[in-house]
Amino acid sequence: MNFQGSPLFGGGSGVHQGQDMMVDPNMLGSVGAPEGFHEGQNMGPVFTPNVVAEMDYRPVLVKQASINHLPVTACSFDSQELLWAGTQRGHVTSYYGMQCEKHSAFHVSSGTDTQPEVRQLLAVDGGVLSLTSTRLRLNLRRAQAVYAYTDSDMQQMQCMIQTSPDTIIMGGHQKKVIEFNALKGQVVNKYEVGEAGCAVFRQSGKYLCAGDATGKVTLYDASTMRKEHVLDAHSSMLSDFDVQRNLLVTCGLSTRMDNQLVADRLLMVYDMRVMRAMAPIQVDIDPTFLRFVPALSHHLVVVSQMGSFQLTDSTSVSQSMMIYPVDTHGAGITSFDLSKTCQAMAFGDSAGYCHLFANNEHAVFSGLDLPTEFADHPEPPHHEMHLMDEIVAFATVPTFYPANDSLLSEWPSSMMKKICRKPRPIDPEILRSMKVMHNVCCVPNPKKGRRNQAPYKIKEENGAKRQLSVPESPIGRGEDPFKTVPKEYQRMLMRYTKLDDFDFRHYNKTHFAGLTAEYNNSYCNALLQILYFVEPLRAALLSHICQREFCLACELGFLFHMLDTKKGEACQAKNFLRAFRTLTEAAALGLLLTEAEEINGSANFLTLIPRWHRFVIQQVNSETSQQVEVASDSPTKETDPSPPAQPEAAPEKKTESGGGKGRKKKNKRGKKKEETKEESKTETADKEGEDGSGEDSLKSTQEEQQEEVQRMEEISVVKDLFFVNSKSELMCRCGMDNSKDEQIKITVLGYPPNPSPGSEGVKKVTFAELVHHSLTSDSTMQAYCNECKKYQMHIKRRKVTSLPDLLVFDCNLSNESNLNFWKDQLRILKKEKKETSASPNNENTPPKPKTLCRYGNACRRADCKYSHGSERSTGATPGDSGDSNTAQFDPSYIPLGLRITMKDDGDLAVEEVSDEESMPKEEVERRELYEVFAVVYVIEQQDAGRHLVSCIKVSEPYHQRKERVTCTQWYLFNDFCLEPIEKPENVSLDLTWKIPSVVYYTRRSFLTHHESTVSNWCQMETLYKDPALANPKRRKMTFLPMQPEETLSKGDLVGLDAEFISLKEEEAELRSDGTKSTIKPSHVSPGRVTCIRGQGDHFGEPFIDDYILTPEQVSDYLTEFSGIQPGELDPSTSTKHLTTLKSTYQKLRCLLDIGVVFVGHGLKKDFKVINVQVPKEQIVDTVQLFHMPNKRFISLRFLAWFFLDKNIQSGQHDSAEDARIALLLYKRYRELQAEGPDTVRASISELYETGRRHGWKVPDVTVSETPAWADTDNMWTGQGHDSEDDILDQTPGFFESQ
């Protein structure tokens, strides 16, 4: 079983504190504790003639299985004299005999596997099988690969077992196990085993025993895989078990009172004849692995991952106290196997070593008389052959060319006629969509035929065309005639080879920004767009800033700022996804998808999206909430079980009228309570004063003031927006009830049970009834009763105390029965619509216009004859839908509006209404109107898997900022594709490919009750104070920080350059025509960012030179181009100013908000990798300054040589040098510009002419003298200082935070 991530797998040394450990004195006498072992180290002559006991195992040899000291995750003995070992990186090695001579080695995982560790090794007749999390591979014992098998149902594979000579069964942490023919490489069958899956397989007789991570062992019929028995062995987790004859013994983990997992020192024993538990076996070590020793009857080997093992008798009452140590030098044991002869044992540890133990000096691994398969020796080629040799290879016979005659294939020219086949006419659709870019005609591939192939027109002898057996599709061979997914809903794929020139405007005609899906876990783009269009949340996150490195609220604020500033272009959520991936809670909840799930679209989004919403909302709430001290009554008062009529409920209620009765802000609750309490105290004092008891009343008032306590209340805009406050009551049979307050972040819809076969049929159930049932449903659960002193069945009742501004519903359609329920309800609605349309009342209804108005919902003409949708405001009476273009859409099960009334008894009344229903003239207490705001759909696309889209109602503030119009409009967001849609299309359903996952409803006019002002957190102090991660005693200063007397203003020049490191290499393929096609682009991250002063006394001096620490694994530091050495990004060894990406991002945002002009070379890529949006008016790119249209772009090195006579980048790149050169080039450009535009054109023409003559290579020249800006008398260089402590006095305030 794989223990990666287990709380016990810590690699600790020794045994637990307080563990009584006895060691065999014979072993201590013969084997000493070495200082350290090396590869192939022999542990010495440990066997003596006096030791003949079969239970006396001694250490023989320690072998290094991984040169990188990676954990040995699997080891297995072969039927031949071989020992196999697999590592965490997917490297498999075999060793021969007791001396462990290296036999063969190979890799079993590809470079794209996110979990390449070898989970299990199994030797079969055809070779050795290696199992990883997503792949099964068969290799010959000589290392040649036979096949590698993957499957969509292989996502978290864990174990396998051989059930017949050619059949194995594989399982893992998933619902299905796979029966597989290992010789043919084919799947035989698949069986459902439940959510827990299988982690360990053992076989005994007719039973196939499977253990799972929940602590249970399930016994299946080996022939039918039908579940026969379930043994609940351990309360928390099962680590290993084994079976011999009728005994089944398990070891596992239990949970302490502090919710920590500890190894259970009791081995559970079961008699498989009666399926009952026997007396457990107590051991003296923490068991992790165990195996029966077939050579010794009823004996077990129990192994602890702390570095020891114990031999015990499963039938003896008094157990052996002899513990055998495994000298791992503090590393944990990660794998274990016992040879088939029981003469040898192998242990793999987390440091990459294999430890071999044996009970005699002539031990063998296999008792079978099978020769070990070694690699073939190469045979020398045959230099001569016999004419009668029948086995000679014909390929060795050279081709015979006649000396005088010609070959038969050389036909004379008189017998040949050259005929040119006419080219195939170009499709008019291709000519219509053709674009000219850089004198090259480009057109998207229509995919109606194979590349570089043209069909022949073959005619019969009589001239008639041959009839094709398969008719041509009317829409082309490359198209699927049965595809029902509209184009705008299909999965958006990007051509990475033309990423820089990708035309996003073709997919987005609006001014709103889309999101690209280049990085892992980009499935959440649809939900990020929804959160962005919640105006109060957007304003709160844009105003939020904190010092946490991986804060989702900060990253969402940065992302929302980019979405605000970009118009019609696509943004990247890479920084948010980077912080999202680092959260361990997200990984524990299964929110991080593997690369295979992303590419194939095989993830279960119907359950993933609600979990993502719940987690992100809770995380943002905890990061943005503030603790406010408010007055409260004495905490000893009893809780009133009646509906919430206390003062706290008043601020939760929102009024619908616009007469200035907005909802009270939460931060005013404390003040309101204090005023109410003061008034009540004053009235009480006045009454008591009239009765002549003023002194007594004064004393009682002082006592009440002393009893009044101050409590802390959590204030957060997220709570007001998303949390449903409710009170849950648990009532026991005895009448004892308990209540507690709950906060619901997303409401899961509950469905009625399926109708029985003999019932009347499916009944109509409205969406409002589902909402009512889900919010106020009663349920039964088992809980402990303090009155009965035991566990009893309780009735749980939920009462909603306040409703939020956004109601979020999980449609819960991952279950097939729930999906069928929606299909039945849609069938009923269509039937009702058909009956209504056929009624006589609709015969004289005038036809509605089908042509859409060009102005859409923004049209204000009352007499317009075109269709506008259902949200057009023309001055008509409220509630009049006007010209609604709903005839083309089927009726939807999702209503456009809901009216929710909170009753005095805690119940709710939910009704379906139109979203255009007029607001009541007078306020109705505890009644709220909601309208649909957004829907997240899972699109089932047959050829591309599943992906997500969202339909969002964009409100007026966003249109005012982006489109400069006042209207509301529905949009479809499909990654970077944005499309305006009609309102009925938002809730229109086709459950064959468009399945709703989450539905959002907003309170009517809730924007008027929230503050939408954004406060700017950017200040100049951000540039002054920046604590570094490296040790100040070791760090060398390479820049002069901003001084307090220095200021930056709008229009100031700042030179900028960034260097990158590679996190993932590019994946590309070579086409048949020789061109390269990028499958997956390389992922790069900022490694160094430098900003240079562009004016003042310190011109050319850097004030920011940040080396950025990344938490992800770096695949290539690109030192040749970036100048970054590997140790410079390590906090323990770096001598640079090492900081976080968020800290550098804040400084760049401050410069951006000040309005400085960034000068650099190739800034487009720099800003893209840093993931910041900079307006064009704040960018001066020397790539564009010295560029002629339709010509190549010129490198910075060539520009510096031509205009400045400087030879730069002769070695490694330096971002400070590149930024200075860019500033000087811009200074030179302005000098040329001052002389006139003709001078600029002439200089650039001469530049290109010189470049062509030199082949765009800089000739070997001598570097010129130091310019004025680099004069050491005027420029700070940091020389002469051993560390930054020497210059602390020169930079006051910069290191104050350290």
Automatic annotation (TrEMBL):
**For this protein, what does the record note about how its cofactor is bound?**
Binds 2 metal cations per subunit in the catalytic exonuclease domain.
Family the UniProt entry places it in: Belongs to the peptidase C19 family. PAN2 subfamily.
**Species name:** Littorina saxatilis
Where does this protein have compositionally biased stretches of type Basic and acidic residues? 672-687, 696-712
Record flagged with keyword Thylakoid: no
Q: Which UniProt keywords apply?
A: Cytoplasm, Exonuclease, Hydrolase, Metal-binding, mRNA processing, Nuclease, Nucleus
State its role: Catalytic subunit of the poly(A)-nuclease (PAN) deadenylation complex, one of two cytoplasmic mRNA deadenylases involved in general and miRNA-mediated mRNA turnover. PAN specifically shortens poly(A) tails of RNA and the activity is stimulated by poly(A)-binding protein (PABP). PAN deadenylation is followed by rapid degradation of the shortened mRNA tails by the CCR4-NOT complex.
Q: Which gene encodes it?
A: PAN2
Which positions fall inside the USP domain? 513-1004
Catalysed reactions listed for this entry = Exonucleolytic cleavage of poly(A) to 5'-AMP
Any one cellular-component term (Gene Ontology): nucleus
Q: What is known of its domains?
A: Contains a pseudo-UCH domain. This ubiquitin C-terminal hydrolase (UCH)-like or ubiquitin specific protease (USP)-like domain is predicted to be catalytically inactive because it lacks the active site catalytic triad characteristic of thiol proteases, with residues at the equivalent structural positions that are incompatible with catalysis, and it cannot bind ubiquitin. It functions as a structural scaffold for intra- and intermolecular interactions in the complex. The linker, or PAN3 interaction domain (PID), between the WD40 repeats and the pseudo-UCH domain mediates interaction with PAN3.
Spell out the protein name for this chain. Answer: PAN2-PAN3 deadenylation complex catalytic subunit PAN2
> What residue spans carry the region label Disordered?
626-712, 867-888, 1271-1298
